């Protein structure tokens, strides 16, 4: 049910499982006020926008049914659950959308009649109103949609319109110690199969008795392990962290997709045997690899091995001397390794390396202290805690006072790292406050000197731009160079912050590194706003011998001076 593209807006959602999987948020309160508690025959229009999978149709459908239950005179024609739909196969979506908006616009302009509601993808709205030119026909509606690109909600009582952007909905807490709490955690808890309140509880209990091979069935094994509270807690943290680290946009649909793919990986989904439990009937160690087990599928789902960031959240990708020694002991002591794996199916014929990797991941997800050294991912590092603390602090509109005060020290550390890394980006200070920068994107032979001035952080602008940001895991550090009236916003992601931390500790990236590093290109693009390249440019050869230098002369002229090398 959570597969991307599988859930689309119907006019009224009568699917029982989808209804039971629904998690109310504060946006539901907004719609309840609009369609139920504060309803009036004033022709007001509510627009819900966002991306595919944000839950626009589900939110609007529930409010519509509430309004009808309260006896408000709303008709299905007053609600548009899917802006891409049409009533006729010969009618294009934009023609159907315009027809709906014409009807809603008439009541909105007059301030009379039933209230209306529409769910529309933000990209579709931009195409319809801006690119197709309908903004001139519906200026108030377009103005509201355009406004919520950078904020959660827009209300204009005089224009009788309210717009809600689910792209700005708070999906989970980012504060250290609270990572993943909120909507994300509530969705994951729907898969607490042992809980009678779970929509899967009855099926889980029933299928335990119907499976022909329950002891070796990977599907039942995964469901039973996911029923453990500590596993769900760890998975919640990992999902949240992966979104931050990879700056990946998450919404209810994508979360459902990830969780269901952990429990029922793609290879299990493709089983076509008949019977009460096709997976159990098809159990064969040669057909199902240990990668379908929850201990492995969690990390494969969140960090495919092809991605550069795959190792950030995988304990099997982290190492220490004590842990390495422990793992070597596991390989030598098969009985000990068997104890660590417990009753895990599909491992009888697999190699030792796979067993060790599976045991390590199992210990992490169960939070078991089974090794002398700690099992870590990026989540347990000071760097990650600093980053999410600063992210929480700069997202002050979503953070309570306790989170803000705790995270302020993290934000100072992040700010120091950003400024210091920019100051020491390429390494060498030639004279007084001049820094020599190597431009590795244009040419390995091109260098320039720049006069650095100590920037002052602009907290208000940093908070504003970070709060308006819809890219998860990205904060904006807005700096104002001393003696200037310009501000330079520096986008900081976790990957870039790690690189900045290395530069702060003395790492000096060379030109080859910068050509490979997106982070260094980001730093360079922002540095150019701090610098005055036109004041002085040195041209050197590969031996770092100066061929010539170009500098400013009087009356807007330039002067070319030969270098020492002839």
Question: Structural class, from secondary structure content?
Answer: alpha+beta
Tell me the domain tally. Answer: 3
> For the report, how would you describe the main beta sheet?
6 strands, antiparallel
Question: Percent of residues in beta strands?
Answer: 5-15%
The number of helical elements comes to: 23
Any idea what the shape is?
Answer: flat
In what order do the strands lie side by side in the largest sheet? Answer: 6-7-8-12-13-14
Unreliable spans are 1-11, 439-449
Mean pLDDT: 83
Distance between the amino and carboxyl termini: 72 Å
Q: What value does the Rg take, in angstroms?
A: 29 Å
Instruction: Work out the helicity level.
Output: 40-55%
Number of strands: 14
What this model shows, in words?
The protein is of the alpha+beta class and 566 residues long. It folds into 3 domains: 16-168, Rossmann fold (3-Layer(aba) Sandwich); 183-380, no CATH class; 384-531, no CATH class. 44% of the residues lie in helices and 12% in strands. The protein has helices at residues 16-21, 26-37, 56-69, 93-110, 122-131, 139-147, 183-188, 201-210, 218-226, 229-245, 252-263, 266-269, 278-281, 294-302, 321-332, 334-341, 352-365, 382-394, 401-423, 459-468, 494-504, 511-516, 518-530; strands at residues 45-50, 79-80, 116-121, 153-156, 161-165, 428-431, 434-438, 446-451, 455-457, 475-481, 488-492, 536-540, 546-552, 558-562. Strands 6-7-8-12-13-14 form a 6-stranded antiparallel sheet, with no helix packed on it. A 5-stranded mixed sheet has the order 2-3-1-5-4, sandwiched between helices. The chain has a 3-stranded antiparallel sheet with strand order 9-10-11. Helix 2 runs parallel beside helix 3.
């Amino acid at each position: 049910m959570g597969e991307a593209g599988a859930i689309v807006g119907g006019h009224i959602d009568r699917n029982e499982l989808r209804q039971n999987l629904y998690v109310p948020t504060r946006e539901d309160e907004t719609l309840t006020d609009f369609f139920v508690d504060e309803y009036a025959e004033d022709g007001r229009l509510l627009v819900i926008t966002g991306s595919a999978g944000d839950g626009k149709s589900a939110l609007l459908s529930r409010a519509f049914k509430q309004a009808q239950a309260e006896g408000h005179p709303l008709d299905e024609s007053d609600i548009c659950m899917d802006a891409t739909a049409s009533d006729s196969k010969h009618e294009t979506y934009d023609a159907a959308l315009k027809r709906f908006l014409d009807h809603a616009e008439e009541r909105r302009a007059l301030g009379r009649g039933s209230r209306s509601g529409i769910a529309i993808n933000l990209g579709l709205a931009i195409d319809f109103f801006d690119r197709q030119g309908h903004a001139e026909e519906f200026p108030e509606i377009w103005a509201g949609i355009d406004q919520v690109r950078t904020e959660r909600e827009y209300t204009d009582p005089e224009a009788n319109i309210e717009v809600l952007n689910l792209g700005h909905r708070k999906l989970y807490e980012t504060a250290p110690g609270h990572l993943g709490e909120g909507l994300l955690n509530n969705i994951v808890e729907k898969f607490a199969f042992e809980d009678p309140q779970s929509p899967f509880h009855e099926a889980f209990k029933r299928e335990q008795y119907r499976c022909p091979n329950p002891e070796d069935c990977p599907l039942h094994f995964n469901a039973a392990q996911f029923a453990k509270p500590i596993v769900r807690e760890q998975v919640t943290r990992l999902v949240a962290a992966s979104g931050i680290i990879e700056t990946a946009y998450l919404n209810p649909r994508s979360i459902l997709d990830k969780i269901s793919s952990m429990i029922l990986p793609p290879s299990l989904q493709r089983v076509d045997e008949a019977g009460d439990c096709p997976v159990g009937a098809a159990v064969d160690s040669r057909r199902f690899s240990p990668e379908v087990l929850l201990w492995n599928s969690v990390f494969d789902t969140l960090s495919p091995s092809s991605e550069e960031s795959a190792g950030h959240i995988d304990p099997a990708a982290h190492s220490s001397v004590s842990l390495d020694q422990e793992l070597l002991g596991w390989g030598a002591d098969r009985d000990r390794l068997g104890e660590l794996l417990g009753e895990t199916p599909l491992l009888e014929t697999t190699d030792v390396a796979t067993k060790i990797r599976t045991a390590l991941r199992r210990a992490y997800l169960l939070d078991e202290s089974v090794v002398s050294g700690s099992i870590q991912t990026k989540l347990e590092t000071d760097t990650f805690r600093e980053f999410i603390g600063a992210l929480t602090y700069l997202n002050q509109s979503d953070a309570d006072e306790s989170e803000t005060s705790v995270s302020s020290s993290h934000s100072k550390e992040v700010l120091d790292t950003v400024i210091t890394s920019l100051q020491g980006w390429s390494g060498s200070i030639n004279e007084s406050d001049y820094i020599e920068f190597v431009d590795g994107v244009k040419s390995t032979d091109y260098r320039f000197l720049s006069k650095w001035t100590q920037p002052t952080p602009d907290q208000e602008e940093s908070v504003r731009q970070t709060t308006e940001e819809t890219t998860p895991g990205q904060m904006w550090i807005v700096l104002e160079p001393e003696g200037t009236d310009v501000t330079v916003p520096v986008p900081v992601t976790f990957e870039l912050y790690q690189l900045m931390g290395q530069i702060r500790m003395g790492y000096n990236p060379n030109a080859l590194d910068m050509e490979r590093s997106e982070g260094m290109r980001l730093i360079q693009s922002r540095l150019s706003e701090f610098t005055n390249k036109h004041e002085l440019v040195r041209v050197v050869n590969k031996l770092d011998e100066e061929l010539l230098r170009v500098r400013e002369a009087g009356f807007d002229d330039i002067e070319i001076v030969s270098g020492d090398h002839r």
